[in-house]
Structures are given as structure tokens and as C-alpha cells.
Amino acid sequence: MLFFLLFLSMWKLYAQECDNQRYYEEVFGYTQISNIKFGENLQPTPLDPNNVQELFMDIYQPNDDTLSARPLIIWAFGGGFVFGSKTSPDMIALSSSFAKRGYVTAAIDYRLSTDLIMNNDIENSYEAVAKAIHDMRAAIRFFYKDAATSNQYRIDTSRIYIGGVSAGAVTALHIVHLDESEIPFEMQEYFDENQGLSGNSGNEGYSENVAGVISLCGMLLDVDLINPEVTTPIVSMHGTEDGVVPYGSGTITILDIGLEVDGSAVIHPRLDEYNIINDFYTFQGAGHTPFVLNPPNEAEVYMDTTISFVRDFLYDLACDNVTSTNERPHNGKVSHDRLPFEVFPNPNNGNFFVQLIADQDYSLSIFDNLGRGVFFDPRIHQGRNYLALDLPKGVYFIKAYSKGTSKQLSKKIIVH
Q1: 96, 230, 350, 396: most buried, per Cβ within 10 A?
Q2: What are the backbone angles phi and psi of residue 121, rounded to the nearest 5°?
């Protein structure tokens, strides 16, 4: 009975948090605090084998937020474990966007393995992943330590989510699904010498539990690492033409490493099989990290889609709405039941859905990049409307106009 009452009180608390569209709409400004140290570890260099690298994070917080226990997202950048930065444009975009929605977000450093450029053998590749795992675990522990001591960042430790782009996503996935009994032989010596899976990058003794994983173009060393007893929810996005991290099962091509791995399209059927809460969006026809490696106009649209899809998944977790993996549609067929106007998939090939949630009809117009009208429908109803248009490749603007008011909604779309 006591457990039930505690559960009910938490459910009511989370529901109240979400009443004003917190975690869904950008209802806050944000403040960025740069270079907060969360750990350090050995990072040998050719000139100094005893070099120690300090590890820093940039923390983004919603302005004027009085909530006493806030969810946290820890982000790790991409770059093949060889290059990259917590201040890369995608890290800033993701961190700031979710801070505006009421999350505390942290973009973290981790030790890079530039020696992979000259020595790309399997053991060295695995060590690069292991170092990143240790450093992200230290970041997780940092916030548990803060919550138990000064509580400066007011984190609800039951709602800590980790994720990243490419190598950062690989790191987050293996934190959840690599355990002591599954460590590859080539990794074992490094872990044995560096305090096991937890590592020694800082804040030892605190919890490393997380409530969810965000994998943007990530992979697992082997899908068989997934443990059906580890029910941490996972959301992924991945391009079908990813030539760096395989969409399905394939070979890592970066730096000619030649490692066989399992990408998102293999991971999520296994999660479904185990009834683990998950969602998966496929960027049809897209390559690696399309929200980064595209012309600015296209990358912006891919990033908008990325933020929207991850937002939907985390909203359900943060507001305690999800109870089974079957409650939410998969493979990009997203329910946008809280957003007035959405277009998906985006980018697309001229076939797409317009999702409109409103209490009146709208007229719908589409304009090309020069402002010329290419489509008009005088009456679009509430709900999901499918459009199949023979549009040339390019950037378009779709606008919905309220029949009874002056309200106007608009979205940028890309047709491939």
C-alpha cells in the first residue's frame, strides 16, 4: 500500500510538471555554464607517458526554473573517438534545445584516441571505446554526487538519460549493455588495469544508473550484448546509407578498422523481442549524421526532425507515460499528439504526412525557395493528412492558415 501511494504521488507530480508543455515545447530560456570539471584520467602522449587529462563539461540549465528535481541529459560528441568536441554545433543545438524544454543538459569531454590514426588494430580500437565509457560513467557519477551533497544542479537521479552522436552514441549504448561477463578479450586487459567497467575517471563510489539512452547513428559491438533483464529504454535514429556506422550489421569503415558491428536496424528488433521500451527513426536515403554532414539548410531540417523525435520519446519517459514498447509507433511513424503542426518524414521524396492538431480547419499552402506557390488545399482537417506531391528536389515552406483566426503555422521541408 505504501509503495502504491508513493507511486501515485510521483505520477501526480510528473503530470503537473508536464501540464504547461514542459519537456515538449521550448518554454524557457537557458544559461550555459562552461568547463565544469567532472573528472580526470591518464592520457599518455608521445612526450609524456604520465600525462593526465582533466575532463570538463558544459552544463545548460533552463532560466528561472524553480523545479526542485529536474531530469538530466548527458550528451557525448561524435568523431570516431579520434576528434570532436563538446562545443561542436550539434552538441550545442541538442543541449540548448532540451534545456529550453526544461531539462538540465550536459555536453561532456572524453579522452580521444588519436593514436588510432597510426595504429588501428582491434585492441587499440576497443581501448578507445573503453576510455570513453569510463569518462561518461564519471560524468554520470558526478551528478549523483552533486545530488547527494550540494545539490547545486537539482537533478532527479531517477531521470538521468545519456546519449550522443556516432561515437558518443556507441559509448552510451555500451554503458547500458556491456557487462563484466561480456567484455571482449581485446578489452579485458585494459579494464582489468583500470578498475573494471566503472573505471577511475572520477567520483568513484556513486551510482551509474540511467533511465534511458539516446543513440544518434550508434551501434553495438554485438547485438548479443543486449541483456533482456536490462530494460533501460532506448531511442535511435540512423540513416539507411550510413557509410561510417552501419545501419544494420556491417563493418566499421572509418580508419579502415574493419570491425564487424551491429547498427540500429539490428538493435531495435532485438529490443522489441525482449519487450524493452524503444523507438527507432530511419533517415531514408541519408548517410552518417545527416544533421551535421549536409549543407546548412538540409542539416537544419534533419536536426529539427532529430530533436522532435527524441523529444517525443523523452517526454513520455519524463512524464511517466510509457508502460510498454507497443504504446508508441516505430520507424518514423511518430505520434505528434501535443504539437499543433508537424511534417514527417522530413526530408522526404515528395510523399509525407501533415499532422494537424487544432479545433478548426486550416488551409494549406506550399511555397518553393523563391516564394512561388506550388500547392494549395483550402481545407485541411484535424488529424493526419497524407500528401503525395510530384515536387522537384529542393527546399520548400509549408504553411497552414487558420480559417477563423489570424493564426499561421509553418515548417521548412526538404524534398530529395
Answers
A1: 396
A2: -70, 165
